[in-house]
Structure formats: structure tokens, C-alpha cells
């Protein structure tokens, strides 16, 4: 289920579609999120930014199924996911007990008037998912060491498990070292 080389499902916010390599996938996808990590760093033209690394399995939709995929979120797409996860927990539910639906929503950049897309997230709690959850728990227990993606993350630091003070210090040190 976890490939030796991670499959990066890019949420291409310039065109509002998912892409894997050069193949485009459109339409609604329903995904089970296995792991979310917070990273800080740079990739491409985006410098010194908070990123979310999301490992997931597509259960319905156009993306490949029965394989673990990874994607990266930033800015509004990341905030949308973190917000819905907080709301789920406030309602005394566990995010893994349901299915997430990331939806590309068109936006307009105020200065350039260019169109771009952000991901907004919906979640639906699904009772009776115990068997599926057990399967994903086994994947995490047995194959999580394969859930490493060095291409995008080589210029990033992981903030998982850090207090806000420690994360601030790590980000400050990162920025100083990468000027």
C-alpha cells in the first residue's frame, strides 16, 4: 500500500486539478487521511512558508486507489484543512472516522487579477468504518518508515511535536541559515 518511492499528488492551484507527474486528474475525490505533518521551509518559488504534508488514500474519485499518496498544502488550503480538523474534534469526533473531500475553489488575486484555486475541505463522518480504520492503522504501524518524501522536503524542517516556542525558535534558526 505504501510504495517504495512516494507518489506525489500535486494539488495544482494554478489549474484547479490534481496532477501526478504530468497526468491531470479532475473531479471530486474522497480521501482517508493517514498522517498530517507541519513543515516550514521553501520549495520552488515559495520561500519560508508553513506547509502541510498530507499522506492519504483515495477511496473514491479520479486519483489512484489502494495506494498511499502524499500532497503538500500551504496558506489557505492548509488553514482550511486544519480548521475542519479542529471543528471535527470540537464535536468529539475523530477525523479518521470519516472521509475528507478536498474541493478546488476558484479565487482571484487582487493585484494581478489572475485566477488561482485553493482547496476547501469537507468531511463526512461515516459510522461503521472500524475495519477500514484497522487496516490503515496496520499500514501506519508496519509501513510508516516508508512515508518519507525527500524531494520536496529537503529544504524544510518538521515542526511536529514541538511547542509553539520551540517551533518559533526552529523557524527563526532556519530562516537565518537559509538567507
Strand content: 35-45%
Q: What's the main sheet like?
A: 5 strands, mixed
Spatial sequence of strands, sheet with the most strands: 1-7-6-5-10
Alpha-carbon Rg, integer? 17 Å
Label the overall shape.
globular
Count of discrete alpha- or pi-helical segments spanning 4 or more residues: 4
Q: Layout of SSEs?
A:
Layout: E1 7-8, E2 10-12, E3 17-20, E4 23-25, E5 30-43, E6 46-60, E7 68-74, H1 75-90, E8 98-108, E9 115-125, H2 130-143, H3 150-153, E10 156-158, H4 164-177
Parallel strand pairs: 1-7
Antiparallel strand pairs: 2-3, 3-4, 5-6, 5-10, 6-7, 8-9
Describe this structure in words.
The chain is an alpha+beta fold and 179 residues long. Helices cover 27% and strands 41% of the residues. The protein is built from four helices and ten strands; from the N terminus they run βββββββαββααβα. The strands form three sheets. Strands 1-7-6-5-10 form a five-stranded mixed β-sheet. Strands 2-3-4 form a three-stranded antiparallel β-sheet, with no helix packed on it. The mean pLDDT is 92.
Summarize the model shown:
By secondary structure, this protein is α+β, with helices and mostly antiparallel strands. It contains four helices and ten strands.
Using brief descriptors, characterize the structure shown.
179 residues; alpha+beta; 5-stranded mixed sheet; 3-stranded antiparallel sheet; 4 helices; 10 strands; 27% helix; 41% strand; globular
